[in-house]
Amino acid sequence: MASPFINLSTLVKGNPVFFDNGEIGVPVYHELGGKFAELLVLSATGEVRRKIRMDHGHRTLQPVLMVQDATRAVALMRDANENPPRAWRSQTQDGGQRWSTPESTNLANPNSALAALRLDDGRMIAVANDVEDERLRLSLLVSNDEGRHWRAVHRFEDKQDHHDHELSPDAFRPLLAADLQTLGPGPDVAAVAANAERNLCRNGDLCGWQYDYPYLIRAADGGFHLVYTWNRSFIRHLYFNQAWLEERL
Q1: Is residue 2 in a domain?
Q2: Tens digit of pLDDT for each residue in 47-65?
Q3: Is 23 inside any structural domain?
Q4: Sialidase domain: which residues (predicted)?
Q5: 92 belongs to a structural domain
Q6: What are phi and psi of 151, to 5 degrees?
């Protein structure tokens, strides 16, 4: 089954990849009676050709693929409530037909989506909530060993100092307003503030922060576009170029 049923079954999160024969590989995950990563292979016109399991059970979901060449690639996967909570990796040596048993990486992952891609020199970068619980921090990370180990090089968002310290709405509002002022032109401040308070203040009582669901692409000009959910109130878009990235790597 490759169509969603009440937001379950086979779902898509990661970027597609393109095979030399014109087929399209879509990293997906199965979430019905289990949670595990898969690769859905489509024809050039969109028909489903086959579905390849990358894992089984209840361990991984939402894979993202980082292609090395025509036969080799690495998948980085969201954790599905394992202990300790870490992102998972798997690799293929035969163009995605078979995948290695997923192994835990050193990247903390609080059961949250991540984004990743491979740079021209072989290094990998990822955007993820690199903490064990909550989604208070969203970081840019780099790996030099095919995704086994990751090192944070930049914080896009960081509210870790509020961990286990939820705020009353009265204390939350001025902090949220100050954050909104730093974002520059774009979102309607009043609307975003209202959405954030409605979505982040449980029962109108205690409020927290949340940054998640990153999606990262590299454009034809070599620049990087990142979007993610900002406090469950709007989609934030950031752009950075190779020079900005190299300063941090």
Answers
A1: no
A2: 999 999 998 877 899 999 9
A3: yes
A4: 2-226
A5: yes
A6: -130, 130
